[in-house]
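We include this case.
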Amino acid sequence: KLIQDLLAFSRLSMADRKFETTDLNIIIEEVKKELKDAIAEKNAVIEVKEICGVKIIPFQFRQLMHNLISNSLKFSNPAIPPHIIISSVNTPYSKINEANLTRGKEYCHISISDNGIGFEKEFAKKIFEVFQKLHGKDEYAGTGIGLAIVKKIIENHNGIILATSKLNQGTTFDMYIPT
């Protein structure tokens, strides 16, 4: 698994960057089908709100959605079913903002939030580094590369990703892709 994740990470730099206007609903549905067993096992609800079309590299965004949704399932609170909310909206930024987005430029803001175990604010940037895990390998399986892959995909789209979280209250990933 580690070798596969490292190969996936390294291929992101070399990959053919063919951007296509894509319906994210299709990608989300494909990922839900792939993760159907984990979704059923945890009685998870994946709520897809308004989704706009966006110009992306489809296979990379499929990997991004897979990594984020599977993380939401993996890091769910065992006492309550996971509830994952995915939405996006095209919006121009006209004010200074925490993501340092360019004023006057339009972005597709994609948000994925969950009601999982969350993490402390101090780890919001560290989680995107290769091999950075907040939990031991005995607690949660994984290689520590999934969110580094997500960040690299967003960077390949000239975008920005932010994570906000509260311990035991869930996590939100906000991604901004120029339109």
The chain has five helices and seven strands. Confidence is low (pLDDT under 50) at residues 133-138.
